[in-house]
Amino acid sequence: MQFYAPGELVTLSCPAGYRPSPPVIKCVRNGSQAVWSETPTCQQEKCEISRTWDSGLQFAHEGQFYALGDSVTLNCSEGYWPSPPVIKCVRNGSQAVWSEIPACRGVCTMAGNWPSSVSAASARTEFAVGESVLVTCRPEQYEGSPAWVRCTETAGHVEWDTRNVSCVEKCKAPDTRDSRVRFALEQQFYSPGDSVTWSCPAGYQPSQPDIRCTRQGSQSVWSGTAACTEVCTRAGNWPPSVSAASPQTEFAVGEWVQVTCRPEQYEGSPAWVQCTETAGHVEWDTRNVSCVEKCPRPQWDPRLRFVPDQPFYGQNEHTTLSCSGGFQPSLSVIRCVRWGQTRSHWNAWSVCAWGACRRITENVTCAVTPRIIPGSLEISPTTIKLHWTCEPPKSCQGSWKIRAQCQLDGPLSGPCQRQRLTREQPLQGLDGTVTCSSLHPFTSYRVTIFGGYPATRSPSTVLYRQRVTTSETAPDKPEIEPLDLSTKTLKWKQLLPCKGAIIGYQLNITARREYNSDFLEVKALRVNQSVTKYLLQPWRHGTNYTVTIQGLTAAGLGQASHWDFETDISEPDIPTNITALSIYSISPSSGTALLPLQPFPELHGPIREYQIIVSAMQNGSEADTCRSPGLQPFNSSLERDVYLAAVLPAHNLTGPTDFVLGNGARHYGYYNAPLRPHRNYTAFVRVVSRWKQVALDSPGTLTAPLGFVSSQARS
């Protein structure tokens, strides 16, 4: 329309590419007139920087308007970030507008409260509020797990939310004021659990084996301080006589170490030494060390030889000295003995053996050894004589002391008890005789000639030695055992070969009878040395025996031991040719008969009497009855029994004779009763032996049956 009333609004438009300015005008009253509020124009279309935008925005190109298609880069003050960072002027319908309405938003950067212990996984350096970024602990100085941090804004303050970060700072390289410390590994930082070792110059050692980096909250600290402390070493006052059981070469104050004496030059018991510090001075406490230096091999005469030969000799060790080329040392054996607390020296062995050790103060030298030339040797059971000569004269006279000795060769114990006899005598000159007397027979002796060089020392060098056995002599009497009458055996113990080798035994047996002076039997016999018993055969009853036994050596018979005994009598022996007696000249009228008798030999003892026994029994037991020792003389009650008719003493029966049986005579209290007619009789003869209250009769009796006696019987 052409006219507008006051108060009306008119919206304007322009051709393409332009825009009205202002876009709306208003008809307003100005006094009596109506006028437009502004004079509009068509202006080329542009984007305008709005004054209502964030005042913190900064534009790369300062200007108020920007043509379509223009881009504007935005910036913000520190701590903020444009969003978006670039805007563009674009068409929106018929208008030119900005692509976005920009604003300064707070941002998180790698400054502020960004943890110094982490580094971002992103290459970006700024992050808007609400953005998160993955971070890892800086490995060179920290350690921990990866975490996410977020940019946050609180009360207008923008900062990182680092609650998830758990990085622990590593230990920095140890700081020490001890300039002697030399660390084995040089680096700037160490992780918890890492240990650091260090070394120190000679004479010092680390105050502790190592120090370790340990976690303490979110930090790491060292477990100790590296320092060097003074130590005891194998130098200083370390005893040269010992070696340590430990391969360790340095020891701290207060430490102990076990030591042993160096076996090649010292001896003693193991001990403990301690590293100590006194007034700032570190040294070993060696009070427990008791090593004794051994004796070194002597540097004496170069011709000396040592057995055993070794650089050093321990306490009480001895070495035997000899000389080359036929020379003799002035000492043959020397012994190392302790001298004071820590040293040893050489002593003469022979002197020490008697408990009075003498320190050797002069060199042992070599001299020509005398030669002893043995001559004739005379030996008896108790004496040894050796003739000798000595050469060369210089050694035999003056420079050497020579002595001879005869000594028992062998142990003192044993079956032959011998005293330790030692006979000594000094020898002088160039020849002589060694005489040893009062010796044991059949005994081995060592005849030794010793020499001592120099002459002031006791002889100890053997110049001559020979084993000599003294001659045999007759042995001692054997030890006999009591006679065993049950076995009729003589027994004795074997003689020991103390006076000679026993080659046998001789027995001399003599038999006699007291009751018969004509009886004598003598027997001599020998048995070998292994026999120790003899069965005496024949064995004579009622006989006195004397048996001697002697040992026999090559020197002859020795002293005799003897048995003296008497054998018991035995039953009289009935000759085998007499089995029965014959009766003749039987006279029934006179009641007599002739009984022939003869004397018996006294083989088993003296015959004392002959008993005439008559039996009228007819039951066959008369032989047993007549053996009874209590037979009674004849009386009327025994007329039909057995009775003792007569006893004839043996001395009255010296030859054959006839005894009249039944003659009514009385003989030594016994009645020889007449024989009655019409009866059968049996006559017995009993022989009785009696000696020293022992009486024995013959084991059997001689029987003479008379048969039936009648008046018609004739002899």
From TrEMBL:
Residues 1-44, 45-106, 169-230 form the Sushi domain. GO terms for cellular component: membrane. It is a single-pass type I membrane protein. This is Sushi domain containing 1. Transmembrane segments: none annotated. It comes from Gopherus agassizii (Agassiz's desert tortoise). Residues 474-573 form the Fibronectin type-III domain. It is found in: Membrane. The lineage of its organism: Eukaryota, Metazoa, Chordata, Craniata, Vertebrata. It comes from the Eukaryota. Keywords: Disulfide bond, Glycoprotein, Membrane, Repeat, Signal, Sushi, Transmembrane, Transmembrane helix. The keyword Membrane applies. Gene3D superfamilies: Complement Module, domain 1 (2.10.70.10), Immunoglobulins (2.60.40.10). Coiled coil: none annotated.
